[in-house]
Amino acid sequence: MPRKLPNIIITGTPGCGKTSHAEALCEQVNGLRHINVSEYAKTKGCIDGYDKERDSAIVDEDKLLDLLEPEAAKGGLVIDWHCCEVFPERWIDLVVVLRCNNTLLYDRLAKRGYKEGKIRENIEVEIMEVLLTEARDNYDEHIVIELHSENVDSLDENVARLAQWVSNWVDDHPEGVDTEL
């Protein structure tokens, strides 16, 4: 059965607005389903340990992908995670890399209570465009877009742009796309 909706990844450093964008997009477009990978991995038993240095859970990526594959075949996923390269290119129709001003990002992470070392690491990732580079290295350049997420206005503009992209994708694929993953 062909999938009638695209699969989208929204990635970026912590604090750049991935979850807010994903939730708002799913509210605007019927049929899209938000997968917050960090929460999904916890609830589905995909945690393989804890990295004390980074103060974060270690996700069993193989188990995660095995569980997500049938969902990806149905289409309509909005995958929200701090990395994207683990997801097979054949699953994904659009990769959105959210970017944020470093000062604003610092303030957001500090407000979340992140330790100084974790804040610094994430700011460096943002400065060095690590996530944007990973997206471009692992997916066709035509499906990777970079959006800036600084405030509510940019969130609204980004979500409107993404909702229009979904509408165009649906119009361009009236029969859906092959679900053979």
Automatic annotation (TrEMBL):
Pfam families with a match to the protein in the record: AAA_18
Top-level EC class: transferase
GO MF annotation, one: ATP binding
Presence of the UniProt keyword Nucleotide-binding in the record: yes
A GO cellular component annotation in the UniProt record: cytoplasm
EC number: 2.7.4.3
Region (LID): 111-121
Keywords: ATP-binding, Cytoplasm, Kinase, Nucleotide-binding, Nucleus, Ribosome biogenesis, rRNA processing, Transferase
Residues reported in the UniProt entry to bind ATP: 15, 17-20, 112
Alphabetized InterPro entries for the sequence: Adenyl_kinase_AK6 (IPR020618), P-loop_NTPase (IPR027417)
Catalytic activity: ATP + H2O = ADP + phosphate + H(+); AMP + ATP = 2 ADP
Annotated segments matching region NMPbind: 36-59
Compartment(s) where it occurs, according to its Swiss-Prot or TrEMBL record: Cytoplasm; Nucleus
One GO process term, biological-process aspect: rRNA processing
Known function: Broad-specificity nucleoside monophosphate (NMP) kinase that catalyzes the reversible transfer of the terminal phosphate group between nucleoside triphosphates and monophosphates. Has also ATPase activity. Involved in the late cytoplasmic maturation steps of the 40S ribosomal particles, specifically 18S rRNA maturation. While NMP activity is not required for ribosome maturation, ATPase activity is. Associates transiently with small ribosomal subunit protein uS11. ATP hydrolysis breaks the interaction with uS11.
Assembly notes: Interacts with small ribosomal subunit protein uS11. Not a structural component of 43S pre-ribosomes, but transiently interacts with them by binding to uS11.
Family named by the database record: Belongs to the adenylate kinase family. AK6 subfamily.
Protein's recorded name: Adenylate kinase isoenzyme 6 homolog
